[in-house]
């Protein structure tokens, strides 16, 4: 993939987005997106910072409301301790290309030995 070229969405991300769309439409009825045209096209950097009272819903809402004609893949962050475990959730996190977020607790030796091999 050339520099600046959009990252294709993995199949697992497409299924997750579909699942979230069905679940959120069931619970909320409709979700209105305003100013979706401010999201740059795929391949151009963008930071989306949701600010809701219920932060648990931020990732699902962002995953389904970012226009797919503008951006195929939205990358999320998760704490680094969720990675590298033999569980379904760990596989799902890695397969949807979530980025690990390291807290101050992790020392540099642990980071290098675990993630930068």
UniProtKB/TrEMBL annotation:
The alphabetical list of record keywords is: Signal
Task: Give a yes or no for keyword Signal in this entry.
Answer: yes
Q: Signal sequence span per UniProt? A: 1-25
Enumerate the SUPFAM superfamilies for this protein. Glycerol-3-phosphate (1)-acyltransferase
Q: Which GO terms describe its molecular function?
A: acyltransferase activity
Q: Where is the Phospholipid/glycerol acyltransferase domain?
A: 31-98
Q: What's the name of the protein?
A: Phospholipid/glycerol acyltransferase domain-containing protein
* Species in which this protein is naturally found: Ephemerocybe angulata
């Amino acid at each position: 993939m050339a520099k600046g070229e959009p990252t294709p969405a993995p199949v697992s991300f497409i299924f997750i987005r579909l699942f979230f769309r069905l679940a959120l439409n069931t619970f909320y009825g409709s979700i209105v997106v305003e100013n979706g045209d401010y999201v740059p096209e795929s391949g151009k950097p963008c930071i989306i910072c949701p600010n809701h009272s219920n932060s648990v819903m931020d990732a699902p809402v962002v995953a389904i409301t970012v226009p797919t004609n503008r951006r195929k893949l939205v990358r999320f962050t998760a704490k680094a301790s969720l990675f590298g475990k033999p569980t379904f959730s760990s596989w799902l996190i890695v397969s949807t290309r979530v980025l690990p977020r390291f807290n101050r607790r992790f020392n540099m030796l642990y980071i290098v030995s675990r993630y930068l091999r």
